[in-house]
Design goal:
This protein is an alpha/beta fold. The protein has 12 helices and 13 strands. The strands form 4 sheets. Strands 3, 4, 5, 6, 10, 11 and 13 form a 7-stranded mixed β-sheet that branches. It has a two-stranded antiparallel ribbon with strand order 1-2. Strands 7-12 form a two-stranded parallel sheet. α1 crosses α3 (33-47), α2 (22-29) crosses α3 and α6 crosses α12.
Length: 302
């Protein structure tokens, strides 16, 4: 590729995936639809991929488009981190609380926790790094974060950990999928043999699934598509790409609205503990201790 994709085109692609409409995505960016269409066409030429299926009923991402959109979301998050860091350098303002959180926890729980903390500490400046469960311990051990949150099956070694919430993984499909017509639960071997939309290796969600399948003696899952966030996985399933195993936290609204349907599976345990972690030997004080207290209060409320 002679040129790198521009960030606005990647942002447009992500919005098309979320909205299922080029016109809606263009409106959110303040673009005329012809200009937005031209941007997507240029992006497709740069990448050498067909990213969007344009029909009279709307614009849907192709399988390649969903994969690129998942990576694009991570690029956007990294860019936001870059801009936040640059702003801190310009103003010489250091984060009073540095938090590192795995993807699902960051998407579904951290905003509520931070919102509650800031209601009592509106002046508090919080720096949040979003990564996967595998990398959170590295940030804590290096001193780049004060407090972390992970969703991996086991607590990271060499760190102090405490439970802050519970979660479970669900097998989900869109309405009309053949699994919704089953009269009996899906067997564990059937799940392991089916091509699935999965989170990337290193994520807590993927680690939980891999460990559960190994414990059941059926080997590793069969990837149809591997994506970098729960949101990207959710969008792919809604679009009909294939079944997925995903956190219940990430799809509660979709289950309530009927956009996704759960599939019962027998012979596998997919419940997990979500943990706060911090450097062993360090006593949490100040904002870090206050945020941990918020998570515990919310955890007791369910």
């Amino acid at each position: 590729m002679s040129q790198l994709p521009d960030l606005e085109s990647l942002r447009l692609l992500v919005l098309v995936g979320d909205a299922g409409s080029l016109s809606s995505a263009a409106a959110q960016l303040g673009l005329a639809q012809p200009s937005a269409s031209k941007r997507l066409s240029m992006l497709e030429r740069k990448l050498g991929l067909v990213l969007v299926d344009r029909t009279r009923r709307g614009s849907q991402l192709t399988d390649a488009g969903r994969a690129v959109a998942g990576w694009a979301q991570r690029v956007q998050q990294e860019m936001e981190g870059l801009l936040t860091g640059a702003e801190a350098l310009r103003t010489k303002r250091d984060a009073e609380l540095r938090v590192a959180a795995s993807m699902t926890v960051a998407e579904c729980l951290v905003p509520g926790w931070i919102g509650e903390l800031r209601r009592t500490r509106p002046e508090l400046y919080i720096g949040l790094q979003v990564t996967n469960s595998e990398h959170v311990p590295e940030l804590l051990r290096s001193g780049a974060a004060d407090l972390g949150f992970v969703e991996s099956p086991l607590a990271p070694t060499g760190l102090t950990a405490c439970q802050v919430a519970c979660d479970r993984l669900l097998v989900v499909v869109p309405p009309g999928h053949p699994w919704t017509r089953r009269r009996r639960p899906l067997g564990i071997a059937e799940l392991a043999a089916a091509p699935l939309v999965l989170r990337e290796r290193g994520s807590g969600t993927r680690e939980t699934l891999d460990q559960a399948l190994r414990k059941a003696g059926v080997g590793e899952p069969l990837p149809l598509l591997e994506l970098g966030s729960a949101t990207a996985v959710r969008n792919a399933v809604i679009a009909g790409t294939g079944p997925a195993v995903i956190s219940e936290l990430a799809v509660r609204a979709d289950l309530a609205d009927g956009r996704l349907l759960p599939v019962e599976v027998e012979g596998i345990e997919l419940r997990r503990v979500l943990r706060a972690v911090w450097a062993t030997g360090r006593t949490l004080v100040g904002p870090a201790a206050e945020l941990l207290a918020v998570t515990r209060r919310r955890g007791k409320k369910g």
